[in-house]
TrEMBL record:
Gene3D superfamilies linked to this entry: 3.40.47.10
Molecular function in Gene Ontology: acetyl-CoA C-acetyltransferase activity
Family: Belongs to the thiolase-like superfamily. Thiolase family.
Thiolase C-terminal domain mapped to chain residues: 254-374
Alphabetic keyword roster: Acyltransferase, Transferase
Annotated protein name in UniProt: Acetyl-CoA acetyltransferase
């Protein structure tokens, strides 16, 4: 049976809205990580069968197949193809899954997967252009619910009984863990400096329940979700190289992790953000791996209520959940986030010799991806 391995994983710093990456075109930001893959591995781009790129807001600077223009911006041969995929916030993770599937099927031998989002230039929701993407039948099916993720996060908090203080404590912990990781150099080896930016810009040191209490609710007047316990609007890109163990040996590349299993699920589109719970169970069953065997979990912090609900439902060890902080502190460049999280997780696994890592992402519309990887020897 064919195997798929990841032999390289790099990312840009995650820039805050209007920060150091805001003036970088998404194709050029993508080119930075593609170029870094070549620089760090010695890989000949001619060997790449395809580039699969996640991007959510495919309009303006990110329109017209940004995956293809990333290849050209990187100066890679015109013969290297590129395509763009959109599974909402899980687009970068889905790009990785598609890359793995093409390698496992034997259609390709070496594929680059990743994603980009420059939300400073292409704001969240701009791709809708005033339209109603859900359509009247969907709205009627769900009693004209607005399908607003913030309202869904509020519903999750209410269903699981999370107080604002509990959510804010989780948010403060995200910043604390991210700051500790950054100071310890945990991200240094995976980051490609761009436009003079060398480190993630979103970390707010000294965040606490007390400082977060000053912020007004964002979605409901009496709500518990606000800018401080939600993911940040961000800019960033990331890329990974997927191939077979045999092809890796031929190219002189050392596998970082083996792909063990992937899963995608649909879930209630009103709660919308609870998909990581069934996705986690599904991927563990497929791999035959127990929850307690997993050394690190990356559950995207779209809103604090999402990983907290996941934690409550799975019973996972909270110390293994987002140990480097998450999107509340480090940002959420939509189409890139799946690849960014996987990059962070792989480097963390190797630094701490953790056998298994599991990543899962909630996604707009009520879907979720989960991916399980195993440390390569």
């Amino acid at each position: 049976m064919r195997e798929a391995v990841i032999v390289a994983a790099v990312r840009t710093p995650v820039g805050r809205r209007g920060g150091g990456l805001a003036e970088v075109h998404p194709a050029d930001l993508s080119a930075a990580v593609l170029g870094a893959l070549v620089d760090r591995t010695g890989l000949d781009p001619e060997a790449v069968d395809d580039v699969i790129w996640g991007c959510v807001s495919q309009i303006g600077d990110q329109s017209s197949n940004i995956g293809r223009y990333a290849v050209l911006a990187a100066g890679w041969p015109e013969s290297v193809p590129g395509t763009t995929v959109n599974r909402a916030c899980g687009s970068g993770q889905q790009a990785l899954e598609f890359a793995v599937q093409s390698v496992l099927s034997g259609q390709h031998e070496l594929v680059v997967a990743g994603g980009v989002e420059v939300m400073s230039r292409v704001p969240l929701g701009s791709a809708r252009a005033g339209g109603m993407p859900y359509g009247p039948r969907v709205r009627a099916r769900y009693e004209d619910f607005s399908f607003d993720q913030g309202l869904s996060a509020e519903l999750i908090a209410r269903k699981w009984g999370f107080t604002r203080e509990r959510l804010d404590a989780f948010a403060a912990l995200s910043h604390e863990r991210a700051a500790v990781a950054q100071d310890a150099g945990a991200f240094t080896g995976e980051i490609v400096p761009v436009a003079g930016v060398e480190a993630d810009e979103g970390i707010r040191r000294g965040s606490s329940v007390e400082t977060l209490a000053r912020l007004k609710p964002s979605f409901q007047e009496d709500g518990v979700i606000h800018a401080g316990n939600a993911s940040q609007i961000s800019d960033g890109a990331a890329a990974l190289v997927v191939t077979t163990p045999g092809r890796a040996r031929q190219l002189g590349l050392r596998p970082l992790v083996r792909y063990r299993a992937g899963a995608v699920v649909g879930s209630d589109p009103v709660l919308m953000l609870t998909g990581p719970v069934p996705a986690t169970g599904k991927v563990l069953r497929k791999a035959g791996v127990g929850l307690s065997e997993v050394g690190v979990f990356e559950v995207n912090e779209a809103f604090a209520s999402v990983p907290l609900a996941w934690l409550a439902e799975t019973g996972a060890d909270p110390e293994r959940l987002n140990p480097l902080g998450g999107a509340i502190a480090l940002g959420h460049p939509l189409g890139a986030s799946g690849a960014v999280l996987m990059t962070r997780m792989i480097h963390h696994m190797r630094a701490h010799r953790l056998r298994y890592g599991l990543q899962t992402m909630c996604e707009g519309g009520g879907t979720a991806n989960a991916t399980l990887v195993e440390l390569a020897s």
